[in-house]
Amino acid sequence: MKSHRKELWFEVPERMGFVNITPDVEGELAASGVQEGLCLVNAMHITASVFINDDERGLHADYKRWLEELAPHAPIENYLHNRTGEDNGDAHCKRQIMGREVVVAVTEGRLDFGPWEQIFYGEFDGRRRKRVLIKIIGD
Amino acid sequence: MKSHRKELWFEVPERMGFVNITPDVEGELAASGVQEGLCLVNAMHITASVFINDDERGLHADYKRWLEELAPHAPIENYLHNRTGEDNGDAHCKRQIMGREVVVAVTEGRLDFGPWEQIFYGEFDGRRRKRVLIKIIGD
Amino acid sequence: MKSHRKELWFEVPERMGFVNITPDVEGELAASGVQEGLCLVNAMHITASVFINDDERGLHADYKRWLEELAPHAPIENYLHNRTGEDNGDAHCKRQIMGREVVVAVTEGRLDFGPWEQIFYGEFDGRRRKRVLIKIIGD
Fold first, then answer.
1. Taking the complete model, does pTM exceed 0.90, yes or no?
2. ipTM for the assembly
């Protein structure tokens, strides 16, 4: 069984933002030499997500509005977590909605995707350097 | 390492609906010959989910009501995504709540499940042909 | 390919609670002998979650309040599922927000984690004995 590991680094300039990392994952899959297996992509930070959806600007704006409705950033006093000195209690909630990780099938050396699937890094507490892990296993 | 791949096709007649696909996944696992490994089941479309929960009619009605409250279909103008000509902005949100995929352990050739676990295809923008991917790896 | 399987048992004394199971998973990983691979940890019950986030008391209180807002326990008549004699319709919803499972990379024999990642069992219908499954595959 082969295995391959890579970290990607980000510093998103806004509090909330989405970055299409599909080309990075495809590049690591090619480097891995894996033809049949599984590819795990996960946020290594607990106020960020990795998820699969559409690369459409309007949808991303909708996600920001919707997540802000479900878990508002302010007033920051509403989150007990923010008594630790942080102001990111909302980001820990938003990340649970969008998820920590995706697992993608690898078939004939490629990400085995439907027509519109793209992998995104989702940032909910940006302006800090953060990481995503890619781990690929298979033959 | 063995690997096995299968697509399932669906055309759910309503906008929102849930289909128990556990027997299909069990059938593919038997066909794979894998005794110990992992089984990935994921929606290949970005307005649909694969999730594990109970096969109980009342619960499924509750999920529909609850998801409609968290991400209402109408008014469709509330979603910028719908300016592309779609009316499924809500479906992209509902899918994030319910998740894209499940990963199930395979032990002694069987899905390693608790007493009530069943795998569902969750459709949030139906009346179109869509696919689920099953990928099984192991020995 | 090696594989390793272990069940963890819980009986959380409240309806809702979070248990840090990271040391248990690390112990099973050591027992498995796997150096490179994937570690699946999932709830075997459909009113519970396994998720990764911060081990911070305030955050956990925030999660309880937030999940109760998104899917209130009472009035229990609001859930058709509760006509079966259960009162846990809300727990089936909360579990979907927090997720069923996590998949963690195994690198050089360790859980390949960012600085604050910890694995939790999330209980939404406690005071019953329930299980988590750990399945590790790799070389």
1. yes
2. 0.97
